[in-house]
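Dear colleagues,

For the upcoming journal club I promised to circulate an example of a predicted protein-ligand complex. I picked one with uracil because it came up in last month's discussion. The inputs are reproduced below in full, followed by the predicted structure.
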Amino acid sequence: MERLQKVIAQAGVASRRKAETLIAEGKVTVNGKIVRELGVKVTPNKDKIEVNGVPIDREEPVYFLLYKPSGVISSVKDEKGRKVVTDFLQDVEQRVFPVGRLDYDTSGLLLLTNDGEFANLLMHPRHKVEKVYVAKVKGIPSRDKLKVLEKGIKLEDGVTAPAKVKMLSLDKKKQTAIIRLTIHEGRNRQVRRMFEAIGYPVLKLKREQYAFLDLKGLNPGEARQLKPIEVKHLRELADTKKS
Ligand code: URA
């Protein structure tokens, strides 16, 4: 038996919080009866659950790690017909969606799942999973400039949390530098905005790691299924770092 809101979230219908609202609003029925209390437990494949009159069919949860190429939208569809991340998982029957997003021009590690509960857990703002980015920037920032990023820099949506920064290489002739930046926040275009704020715009950006996961063995556009132990490990990380 599982909580009704959890089952709805896992079906990918809504986030857990949204599911709670739907229940409170009387939009959810279990075996034909409206349920408004949040504590109700149900048996997923036995009880008939409907949201707004539509049955939720609980798919088997699946978890993928994609090496997103740049020039691809982190979405399941695009009105302008541009390539989207799910185009790279066409053999997957389940309706997977990305966990968070990478910019159109950013390449690298992106998780996809049909497990809304899992996605919410990882995307929770309090959850501090480390993400490692490698950026090619225009210009060669001094040690002092990079220190500013390490300490935290004021952006329009507030000061960033301390980051780890390492200069990997520089090209004096071309006046570019390759810098590794490790952060655990996930604000919109955060890495690009951080470098812009110190005056070194990002020319190229790749996410190389997400928690303990990396891109080893994958080429751009390739994906692999996460191992059950990796899913478990990610869940534990998110749970412990939430409080
Ligand atoms: N930060 C960015 O600026 N872009 C991304 O895609 C991810 C992090």
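Two points we might discuss: The CA atoms of residues 27 and 52 lie 5 Å apart. The pocket of uracil is lined by residues 102-103, 106, 189-192, 205 (CB under 6 Å).

See you all on Thursday,
B. R.
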